[in-house]
Design goal:
The protein starts with 6 loop residues before the first strand and ends with a helix. A hairpin with a 3-residue loop joins strand 8 and strand 9 (about 275-285). Helices cover about 50% and strands about 10% of the residues. The protein is α+β, with helices and mostly antiparallel strands. The strands form three sheets. Strands 1, 2, 3, 8, 9 and 10 form a six-stranded antiparallel sheet that branches. Strands 5-6-4-7 form a four-stranded antiparallel sheet, sandwiched between helices. It has four domains: about 5-45 and about 270-375, ACT domain (Alpha-Beta Plaits); about 60-115 and about 235-265, no CATH class; about 120-220, Gyrase A, domain 2; about 390-725, no CATH class. It has 20 helices and 13 strands. It has helices spanning about 20-30, 55-70, 90-130, 155-160, 195, 215-265, 290-300, 340-350, 365-370, 395-400, 415-430, 430-445, 450-475, 505-530, 535-560, 575-580, 590-625, 630-650, 685-725, 750-754; strands spanning about 5-15, 35, 45, 145-150, 165-175, 175-185, 205, 270-275, 275-285, 305-310, 655, 660-665, 675. Belongs to the V-ATPase 116 kDa subunit family. It comes from Natronoglomus mannanivorans. Component of the A-type ATP synthase that produces ATP from ADP in the presence of a proton gradient across the membrane.
Length: about 750
């Protein structure tokens, strides 16, 4: 669960004559994650695409272009036949469909362009129609300047009046449009007169349209043409929709067929080839190796040599290494010499990849690929990652991949997120009503035909379930206590409370948040310690063990009775929260001293392992990151307080001599309480109060519900990514992408392996 699927490096060697059959078989298996040959072997080159690849690629581009024109989606098609059911004359059918779609698309483009031009003309003429002046009255003057536009009439007139170059002017308005006629002063040219006077004013100028018609008649004519063009576009769209219904399934099936052909035809680009032979390498989940060998053997018999070169260990850390010998069940064992031995041997007798594709039948790739028996010649790459988690935890893989795919060599944190994220979310919100709604929202999201939405929906269901459980313990249903609703007889009802009015509970949640933070961070440090063990115990101790000692030593001392009088009373001592609720006053004094020793030892190890930089980070790692978990209590009290405020507005409240506030619910006896607030539901007149109370109750709790998602969801996500992941996670692994193609509606082998 914490490790990805074990991967095996597989080599397939054979003559080029059987390469197409091998490619077809491997593609159908959908198991092999191909390694890219980098051209480094002597005598080997990257293969060439199989004949017909270019034609298939061009046809695939055509099909996808047609689908884009039709806005065709696989979900919209009535049915998508299997690609093998495509008729032999599909090229003729494709050409007919392409010709018709392109004709309609070109026609639609022409109509849209004309429509754009018509709309531009309408935009230019409408201001003149609004002004109500014939266009011939606005041109042809030699002694005055005329300008039409939009702006403040008062500002325009003030600017004209202040201009010495303007001898006289007149303005005409229609709606927001202003026509200006200005006469120049003696000796001043009338050209550009108004423009010069309006410099600095906010005034939009309108160019005079070129037409002999009146503005109103011209607008009417253009509007009629606009409607005709829009009708033409609707007719074209209707015809394209008809083609989409008739040919959509064909295009989708053909796309699948051509995609498979292109994938198969271009596969040799990743192979190492000579004139007569090929070598293909890749990774498969180890459990499928026998199935892989059987399928290839059934397809081509002894014409290829299949070898499990390596069964990848989990300590690779970026350096290609040979794993331990593969068990004698699927192929010959791999040479297990060390990198140093291989390096020294290669200096005395260099490896030379065989270029003769006609080696003796049955000769292994390792034998044919390296001279002198110095080990298998392989393409150096890291194994891809197939996460292997319990089914309930798999949706939480999305949260891990949002950061990065885990490396093959590091532990997968998905299970730990599954165990902590919904729990912490429920702790922070803790309300039966909200929990049920969160589960309902998760259920709706799960119905979408999208892997991401299904994952989000499942996470919502888990978070809602824990919210409901904590809500039951907190005694909250939309912020109302179950006892106030007459449900105090339920088992454990009211056993806890959020602490809005009983501060000792709030202090308990503060302490428990710190404890949760310690547990969470220790999990991260332990995972980091395990990851670092591949570099040696010493490295693991200095990198992660030092912080484990430092952080735990500090908090063991804090929760101990050593110097108890110098510590906050709610954490340790006779008046601590643990003492009040659990009868635990603190760890023995000697344990606290041991914690101090661990703290000092860890501090020294940090200095040795990470130097001055590590010592500067010590306060944050040993203390600050734990305090970050107090945000959980902040969200708990904030959301509880918001729900309390909504209910107080709706129902009103009464308080007793202790200051405890009870809602004025019909099910609750408020005798002996003093009224603080009437509440909308009790307001006169009732026909105003009750509807208003319903609106406030619904909208108020919807607001709290949504803010709960952003507050609790994002804050816990931050704790996972910043505090938790920082202790161990690197990421950067490669996604497992097997060579193959899935028919519509089928599931990949990689998804099954997940």
């Amino acid at each position: 669960m914490l490790r990805p699927e074990r991967m095996s490096k597989v080599s397939v060697t054979g003559s080029k004559g059987v390469m197409p059959t091998v490619i077809e078989t491997v593609h159908e298996l959908n198991l092999l994650h191909l390694s890219d040959y980098d051209g480094s072997w002597q005598g080997f080159d990257n293969g060439d695409p199989i004949e017909g690849a270019e034609d298939a690629s061009g046809e695939l581009v055509t099909v996808r272009a047609l689908e884009s024109t039709l806005n065709l989606d696989a979900d919209e098609a009535d049915s998508v036949p299997d690609s093998s059911a495509i008729e032999s004359d599909w090229r003729e059918r494709l050409e007919r469909v392409r010709t018709r779609i392109n004709e309609l698309d070109d026609q639609r483009g022409e109509v849209r362009e004309e429509l754009r031009q018509v709309e531009e003309r309408i935009d230019r003429i409408e201001p003149f129609a609004e002004l109500g002046i014939d266009l011939d009255l606005l041109t042809g003057y030699d002694s005055v300047d005329v300008l039409v536009g939009e702006g403040s009439v008062a500002d325009v007139e003030a600017a004209l009046a202040a201009a010495d170059e303007v001898r006289a002017y007149e303005t005409f308005t229609g709606g927001d449009v202003v026509a200006i006629v200005a006469a120049p002063a003696d000796g001043v040219d009338d050209e550009g007169l108004i423009d010069d006077a309006l410099v600095g004013q906010e005034f939009t100028r309108h160019a005079l349209p070129d037409t002999d018609q009146s503005p109103t008649a011209y607008v009417d004519e253009l509007t009629r043409r606009k409607h005709e063009l829009e009708s033409d576009i609707e007719e074209i769209d209707t015809e394209l929709e008809e083609i989409k219904r008739e040919e959509g399934s064909f295009l989708l099936a053909l796309e699948e067929k051509l995609t498979i052909e292109v994938q198969r035809a271009e596969a040799p680009l990743q192979f190492a080839t000579t004139e007569r032979a090929f070598v293909a390498e890749g990774w498969i989940p180890s459990e499928y190796y026998d199935e892989f060998v059987t399928a290839l053997s059934d397809a081509v018999g002894d014409s290829v040599e299949i070898e499990e070169i390596e069964r990848a260990e989990y300590d690779r850390h970026g350096a290609p290494t040979h794993a331990a010998p593969v068990p004698d069940e699927g192929g010959p064992a791999v040479d297990t010499e060390t990198d140093e031995d291989a390096e020294s041997e290669s200096e005395s007798e260099p490896q030379k990849a065989a270029t003769d594709g006609g080696q003796k039948q049955g000769q292994s790739h390792a034998q044919a690929g390296a001279a002198g028996g110095s080990g298998a010649v392989t393409m150096d790459d890291e194994p891809p990652v197939v996460l292997d988690n319990l089914r309930p935890a798999r949706p939480f893989e999305m949260m891990v991949k949002m950061v990065s795919q885990p490396k093959y060599s590091e532990l997968d944190p998905t299970l730990l997120i599954f165990l902590t994220y919904p729990f912490a979310f429920g702790f922070m919100i803790g309300d039966i009503g909200y929990g049920i709604l969160y589960m309902a929202m998760g259920y709706v999201a799960y119905q979408f035909d999208s892997d991401a939405m299904k994952a989000i929906g499942t996470i919502g269901l888990w978070a809602g379930a824990f919210t409901t459980v904590f809500g039951y313990l907190y005694d909250d249903i939309f912020g109302v206590h179950m006892a106030d609703l007459g449900l105090e007889w339920l088992p454990l009802a009211g056993s806890l409370t959020k602490g809005l009015q009983a501060t000792e509970w709030a202090m308990l949640w503060i302490v428990l948040s710190l404890v949760f933070g310690l547990i969470h961070l220790n999990l991260g440090l332990i995972v980091g310690f395990v990851n670092e063990l591949s570099h040696g115990l010493k490295a693991a101790m200095y990198e992660k063990g030092s912080w484990i000692l430092t952080m735990n030593g500090l908090f063991i001392w804090i929760f101990s009775l050593h110097l108890v009088d110098e510590k906050p009373g709610f954490i340790v001592g006779e008046e601590s929260m643990f003492a009040e609720f659990l009868g635990f006053t603190g760890l023995p004094e000697v344990v606290g001293i041991v914690g101090l020793v661990a703290l000092v030892v860890g501090f020294v190890m940090v200095g040795i392992g990470e130097g001055i930089a590590g010592l500067f980070e010590w306060p944050a790692w040993a203390f600050g990151h734990v305090l970050s978990y107090l945000r959980m209590v902040a969200v708990l009290l904030a959301k509880g307080g918001m729900a309390f405020a909504v209910n107080l507005l709706v129902f009103g409240g009464y308080s007793d001599e202790t200051g405890y506030t009870a809602f004025n619910l019909p099910t609750y006896d408020v005798a002996g309480y003093e009224q603080d607030f009437v509440g909308l539901v009790h307001m006169d007149p009732v026909w105003i109060g009750i509807p208003l109370a319903i609106v406030v109750f619904v909208l108020g709790h919807i607001l709290v519900l949504l803010l709960g998602i952003t507050a609790a969801g994002i804050q816990m996500l931050r704790l996972e990514y910043v505090e938790f992941f920082q202790k161990f996670y690197e990421g950067g692994g490669e996604e497992y992408e097997p060579f193959g193609h899935d028919s519509a509606g089928t599931q990949t082998r990689s998804q099954t392996a997940d």
